[in-house]
Design goal:
By secondary structure, the protein is α/β, with parallel strands linked by helices. Strand 6 and strand 7 form a beta hairpin.
């Protein structure tokens, strides 16, 4: 299921864009959309910032009353939103600025299925590949997307679980270690270490019978009897990689 936002101040344009997306879904029935309509950039930004809404693709008009699409795209970047943006506009005037805010495409109206569908093919393929390397987690009351390669290790302290990222961030998670491992076990680099840790082998700088040192300088102490298995997993992982 893909979350797609369409944003335009003209109802007729919203209808046209939505119908093209529905047509794409009929052509590729295995592709499922959840389409959300917005009549202004402010409405879209408010929804994203306050309601745990994370669109993966945004089709947005540039010329709208109030905040124009270019400004909205800049604010989305500042919010950390990584949605692909397709600008739909009646003019090429803002084309250069559009790519300055990392727009994926800039299409001049009227947009037809012939023009839009190949763009959707490419962007949805990108999103699908990216999904394979991200987790959606509820953190501090918000749904956040965490890049798998940024996860250094997960730690259980009693009934509380923490996610440690390579940039120093630490998040409290409201799910069990078993659930966390269920999400991470599809990635070869994650292994269980005792009952208290899930570690990312990619971030290990060194290990011995007492502890693991990560590339960031952080250190965790190994539970009794964990070293032998971890050492075998570590060497097997890198041998298979090479």
């Amino acid at each position: 299921m893909y979350q797609i936002a369409i944003c335009d101040d003209e109802t007729e344009e919203l209808d046209k864009t939505e119908q093209m997306l529905i047509g794409y879904g009929k052509k590729y029935p295995e592709t499922k959309f959840m389409i959300q309509r917005f009549e202004s950039a402010d409405e879209l930004l408010d929804m994203i910032s306050s309601n745990n809404y994370i669109p993966e693709l945004i089709l947005m008009d540039i010329y709208m009353p109030g905040k124009i699409g270019i400004e909205a795209a800049g604010e989305l970047q500042e919010m950390g939103n990584r949605a692909r943006i397709i600008f739909l506009t009646t003019s090429k005037e803002h084309a250069l600025a559009a790519f300055g805010v990392k727009a994926s495409q800039y299409l001049v109206k009227p947009v037809s299925e012939k023009i839009l569908f190949p763009v959707l093919d490419s962007l949805l393929e990108e999103i699908e590949e990216e999904r394979k390397r991200y987790l959606l987690l509820r953190i501090e009351g918000r749904i956040q997307r965490i890049a798998v390669n940024e996860i250094e290790y997960c730690e259980a302290q009693g009934k509380t679980q923490y996610l440690h990222l390579a940039d120093g961030r630490k998040y409290l998670l409201r799910i069990t270690m078993a659930k966390i491992y269920e999400k991470l076990s599809r990635y070869r680099e994650f292994v269980r270490v005792g009952i208290a840790y899930i570690v990312n082998l990619e971030h290990i700088d060194s290990l011995n019978a007492q502890d693991i040192c990560f590339g960031t300088g952080k250190k965790i102490y190994l539970p009794r009897g964990a070293y032998k298995t971890l050492k075998e997993q570590y060497f097997r992982y890198y041998c298979e990689e090479n």
